[in-house]
Design a protein that fits this description.
CATH topology: Rossmann fold
Order of helices and strands: EEEEEHEEHEHHHHEHEHEEHH
Low-confidence stretches: 1-77
Strand content: 15-25%
Strand order of the largest sheet: 8-9-10-5-11-12
Shape: globular
Distance between the termini: 22 Å
Largest sheet: 6 strands, mixed
Oligomer: single chain
Radius of gyration: 21 Å
Mean pLDDT: 82
Number of helices: 10
Helix content: 25-40%
CATH superfamily: P-loop containing nucleotide triphosphate hydrolases
Length: 330
């Protein structure tokens, strides 16, 4: 999906004395974003003026051992659900950072989490592999299931969970080891190989999937920290997929990269989604439109809206979503 630049309707914009209204500007294939009628969803629906939208009653905690289906019209996933979150709240001491988030994330697709800084995107991302467990005073309530299994259950080993749910951070963080040892580290500590030949195959396969093999094949024993920023980020992705994860979480993976390196990472994400469930946090609306199939918009710790990426960007249901994607705040 291509991203169009807003242009002012005839008679508006520079020299006209009338400021251009983004809600009137043609975008993406000439469609016009709907004008928002009310900032309060409880008073009036953006799609059907004068009609109050139905607000689904949250699922009662403890009522059932399985995660209920998402409410009708809530933007359910187009494919099989890999991760299901219900009533997820996160607290850091006395401060609540996330409020009752309910979201289904489909397998073998890219889900983008968007929203202004401090809205809870990265906090929610970390709940999916229990990274918040490492933060003192952090508490997570609600239920998150992966393939129907509660990941916060006492029987779940968080170390093994993080092998199934890989993480790629904003800043490339290769280990101070060789390129080969960076990729081999995970399979080694998890006992996934039994011989040097097997390890060599895993390392090569992972680097090939990350689109890095041709660039480093002749220097595998050079330091990973000696690579360029974009190469380091692809090395980190290779390290993540070396343990055969089912889910890959990416927290602004391109924010520290130049446009060329960013394009390579985005191409890689598009290839990897055929094998993995990918969730990406991004501040770039253009990037979300290019790489994701589904988008979830967060604001002030709450999930405001979720749906197909094209739908979110061309026909958002909530005024706050419209204001954010048109640049009115954030």
């Amino acid at each position: 999906m291509k991203f169009s630049i807003f242009r002012a309707p005839d008679g508006q914009g520079e020299g006209s004395g009338t400021p251009a209204d983004p809600t009137e500007a043609p975008r993406m294939g000439g469609q016009v974003l709907p004008g928002a009628v009310s900032t309060d969803r409880r008073e009036e629906s953006v799609l059907t003026p004068g009609v109050a939208p139905e607000v689904p009653e949250p699922a009662r905690k403890g009522a059932t051992t399985s995660v209920p289906k998402p409410p009708a019209g809530a933007g359910g996933p187009v494919g099989p659900t890999k991760i299901a979150a219900r009533d997820v709240s996160v607290f850091y001491g006395d401060k609540q950072a996330l409020f009752d988030v309910a979201l289904d994330i489909p397998d073998k697709s890219v889900t983008a989490l968007i929203g202004p800084s401090g809205c809870g995107k990265s906090t929610f991302l970390r709940t999916m592999n229990r990274m918040n467990d490492t933060i003192g005073g952090a508490k997570v309530t609600g239920r998150i299931e992966m393939d129907g299994e509660d990941i916060n259950a006492k029987s779940i080993d968080p170390v093994l969970l993080r092998a199934r749910v890989g993480m790629v951070f904003q800043k490339p963080n290769p280990f101070p080891k060789s390129i080969y040892e960076n990729v081999a580290y995970g399979p080694k500590i998890h006992g996934l190989t039994t011989s040097k030949a097997e390890m060599d195959q895993v390392v090569e396969a992972s680097l090939r999937r990350a689109g890095l093999w041709d660039e480093v094949a002749d220097r595998l024993h050079s330091a990973g920290t000696g690579l360029s920023g974009g190469q380091q980020q692809r090395l980190v992705i290779a390290r993540a997929i070396a343990v055969n994860p089912e889910v890959i979480l990416m927290d602004e993976p391109c924010s520290a990269l130049d446009p060329i390196a960013t394009a390579k990472i985005e191409e890689l994400i598009d290839e990897l989604r055929e094998r993995y469930c990918i969730v990406i946090v991004t501040h770039s609306m253009a990037q979300a439109a290019r790489v994701s199939q589904r988008t979830a918009f967060f604001h002030m710790g709450r999930l405001v809206e979720t749906g197909g990426t094209e739908e979110i960007f061309t026909n958002p249901k909530d005024r706050r979503t419209l204001d954010y994607i048109t640049g009115r705040f954030g």
